[in-house]
Amino acid sequence: MQSNSELLRAGYEAWNGDDLDGYLELLHPDVRISPSGVFPGLAAEYDGRERAATFWRQMHEPWEVFRIEVEHIEDEGDWAVASLRFRGRGSGSGVEVDMRFGMAMRVQDGLGIEFLNRQSFDEARKAIRTSRPEAKRVEWPH
User: From CA 6, how far away is CA 36, in angstroms rounded?
Assistant: First the structure.
């Protein structure tokens, strides 16, 4: 079984290789993804593999070039916390983007089950201290 850090790296290899199926195989069926809020038009959360695929498409769609580099990573219990660098070029606009952000991934049964994207590594590390996987989720009617 791979470490949390290795699982996180494998996920970004799939992202950079445009391998959606490979990415989804690394996710727990009950995965929850919480975007950082930096990119407009994304939902506040994506629950389950089907919604994770939607997140993937929404993130990749506007970019001609899309690459995420793992600059630093630390394992903390069930979590891997990473400092990441996103580089992209807009499909229609040609605008170049180069930004850093932080991400934390919680692992359960060898698969990524919770992803917290934040604007910095320190914010991602703080977020894992407030995330309580044992807390019951409240489903609101749509």
Answer: 22
Tens digits of per-residue pLDDT, 25-82? 999 999 999 998 888 889 999 999 999 999 999 999 999 999 999 999 999 999 999 9
Cβ-based neighbour number of residue 23 at 10 Å? 21
Q: Which of 30, 26, 38 is nearest to 99 (CA)?
A: 38
- Give the separation between CA 133 and CA 113, rounded to whole angstroms: 10
H-type alpha helices, the chain: 4-16, 20-25, 48-60, 121-130
User: Does the domain formed by 4-130 have CATH 3.30.70.20?
Assistant: no
Query: Where are the chain's structural domains?
Result: 4-130
For the entire predicted model, the pTM comes to: 0.86
Token output for 103:
């991400």
